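Q: Please design a sequence for this.
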């Protein structure tokens, strides 16, 4: 299944199309999340990453032990060897993977700072749907406003 949005933008590369790449698992029903992975793709992920919506059945191959709720809380990056990074640790990992993000790497890799970045990531992830209540397809964002 190709991950696309309603504007018929270029499809994101799936793990099936590019085996051996890191896999970014994201909420494919959230327009903010989809825009974020498209931004990663634009910043160099096109040749280095593949993308998979957490709603895709094949997500169990990469994160079968994580629940749907856990995957809804934070982005997950799975390396080809199975190593996983989630939330702020995933973004921190991507600052080493994508050259345009290298400028952020020193800040995000300050020793003992990951708990602070994780707290900030969780706070932002919790409110990301408030940046536009019409950002999700159907009523998938509704669960965040109840």
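A: Design:
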């Amino acid at each position: 299944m190709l991950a696309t949005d309603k504007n018929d933008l270029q499809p994101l590369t799936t793990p099936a199309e590019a085996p051996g790449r890191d896999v970014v698992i994201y909420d494919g029903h959230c327009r903010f999340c989809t825009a974020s992975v498209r931004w990663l793709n634009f910043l160099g992920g096109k040749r280095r990453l593949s993308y998979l919506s957490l709603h895709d059945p094949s997500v169990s191959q990469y994160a079968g032990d994580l629940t749907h709720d856990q995957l809804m809380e934070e982005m997950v990056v799975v390396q080809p060897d199975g190593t996983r990074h989630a939330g702020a640790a995933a973004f921190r990992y991507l600052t080493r993977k994508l050259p345009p993000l290298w400028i952020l790497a020193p800040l995000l890799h300050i020793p003992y700072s990951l708990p602070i970045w994780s707290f900030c990531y969780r706070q932002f992830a919790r409110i990301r749907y408030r940046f536009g209540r019409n950002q999700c397809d159907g009523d998938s964002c509704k669960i965040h406003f109840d």
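Q: Thanks. Anything notable?
A: Residues 22-144 form one domain. The chain has one domain: 22-144.
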